[in-house]
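WARN retry 2 of 3 for item q-0093 after timeout on previous attempt; input resubmitted unchanged.
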Amino acid sequence: MKHSYYIFAFILTILFSNCSVLKKNTNNKLIFELETTSCYGTCPVYHLQIYSDGTALLNGKEHLDKIGNFKSTIEKEKLNELVTSFENASFFELKDAYQSKFLDLPTKYISYHKNGETKKIMAYDKIPKVVTGLITELKQLVDVLEWEKMD
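OK item q-0093 returned
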């Protein structure tokens, strides 16, 4: 009987410790994403993700000096500036897609995650300045952050 009590206590300890780890991980939410596609030339192809704790993940695929998976950190001040930029742009009110008949342009997918909602914009052509500005802010991070290779 005493033996089964210890096993039960051990199982409860494992379960509750795992729950606390999960709770810690849920505090770190995805906020921004930028994904670029290829073109007929040498357009950089990558996927950038930025999380609420300042973690930045980069998956470089083609025509970029960082091919593979990389990790970096964004300062809280810069993260707040990005949030302000997206809020000032009324990101959730913008169109879902900006397209044209051209075939050679790279497509950029820019996403903003907020309060359980996600807005994703496909930016191909005839992109308003406000969206171009947001894309530029995220693209600059690829160049200025100090990236650590993860692979």
